[in-house]
Amino acid sequence: SGMIVVSIVTILTLLGIIILFSASQAMHSNPATLLKKQMLWLVLGLGMSFFVFKLNLEKIRPFIPMITGAALVVLALVLIPGIGVKVNGAQRWLDFGFMRLQVSEIGKIGLLLGLANYLAVNRRLLDTWKEGFVLPFSILGLFVGLIFLEPDYGTAFLCGLVGCVLFFVSGMKLRYLLPTAGMALVLFCIAIVLNPERLSRITSFIDVESNRSDSGYQLWQGIIAFGVGGIEGVGLGSGQQQMSFLPEAHTDFIFAIVGEELGLFFSMGVVLLFLALFLVVLLQMKYAPNLYQYLLVLGALLMIEFQALINIGVVTGCLPTKGMSLPFISYGGSNLVLMYVLIGVILNCLCHWSKVPLKEVREL
User: What are the E-state strand segments in the chain?
Assistant: First the structure.
């Protein structure tokens, strides 16, 4: 199963590099610029992935509160003017000169480790008010709140969603979980309604055609790309969309270029690969030795899958426009490294779990 995971990630990454090279042909006088940057991030991602793969996940548990705390500090730091870098009106980056780091990606790791460890340690207390509701929701709320303030609504939503699934799986009382999650969703919707730019994304999504010249432009061009590509695609490098019709083609809307240049079969292939990854890992979950590792793998898997789902949903016009990269394929360093770290966590666990499901151990 580990080999299947590695194969899927390799195929997706290679496809990403090919499409990126094709998409950047028209964007720069030197098309290799983006590719070189992406390759550097890829090497860093592979290095981090290997490091996480070799970690002893049980031995790091005493340090997890510190890691989670540090992640929160970084998320708070980026909001301070002068420290965080503003791009397109959102303060999400720390600039180190030679590289820019999107801090919400560090936040995801801190959150995942923190929640998995907390829920595993306190799993017998999850039906109590303090340990089973106030504390876990405070941890999640801090992360989601700080990411929300950047503002990065999509990532905040993603983290909240993954957190709630982990709470549910660990056995948190539904009478705590459902009202709180519902209330958070209501607040989230209010925030969107109060924010004209984000509201316009929703309204233009409802009627793409009549908004195709302004707020619905990107989505309209994305949908055209799929239509033009048809079943076989127009061929690599022959796509018209990246000629500048489609903004951010190489980051959030790269799936549209896959659809245009490689056609239906490749687009479906990408979807099926994400589905296969999900099923392969899910089938191995029953071998988890404890709740902590179970939640780590589940959380890592959901972070990847929900992100892919949201991206593909957005690009195909099933969901309102939201800037979220397609895992392993989109251009963008921080997210690529995070995806590889999550895969490292998954492989680490899958390779160390003995192939004896828990219930059989208990019978022995």
Answer: 84-87, 90-95, 100-102
Residue 322 near residue 153, CB atoms below 8 Å: yes
Pairwise CA distance, residues 94 & 177, whole Å:
34
Q: Using an 8 Å Cβ cutoff, are 143 and 312 in contact?
A: no
In 122-253, where does DSSP find H-type helix?
A: 129, 135-148, 153-170, 174-194, 196-206, 217-229
Peptide bond into 81 cis (omega under 30): no
pLDDT score recorded for residue 173: 92
Amino acid at 302: L
- The answer to whether residues 114 and 162 touch, using CB atoms and an 8 Å cutoff, is no
The residues, ordered by sequence, that sit 6+ positions from 212 with a Cβ below 8 Å of its Cβ are 220
Token reading at 67: 């890691």
> What's the confidence (pLDDT) of residue 91?
83
Nearest one of 294, 331, 345, 360 to 13, comparing CA atoms: 331
Digit-coded pLDDT (tens) for 246-255: 666 677 888 9
Four-residue CA torsion sign, 44, 147, 156, 137: positive
306: amino acid identity, one letter:
F
The DSSP element (H or E) to which 125 belongs, if any, is: none
Regions in the chain scoring below 50 on pLDDT: 364
**150-179: pLDDT as tens digits:** 989 999 999 999 999 999 999 999 999 999
Angle CA(298)–CA(299)–CA(301) in degrees, nearest 5? Answer: 65
Omega of the bond leading into 151 within 30 degrees of 0 (cis):
yes
Secondary structure of the chain: what % helix, strand, coil (to 5)? 70, 5, 25
Do you know the residue count of the chain? 364
- pTM for this structure? 0.92
- Terminal C-alpha separation, the chain: 25
Cα(104)–Cα(325) distance, rounded to whole angstroms? 13
User: What residues contact 72, with CB distance under 8 A and at least 6 apart?
Assistant: 107, 110, 142, 143, 146
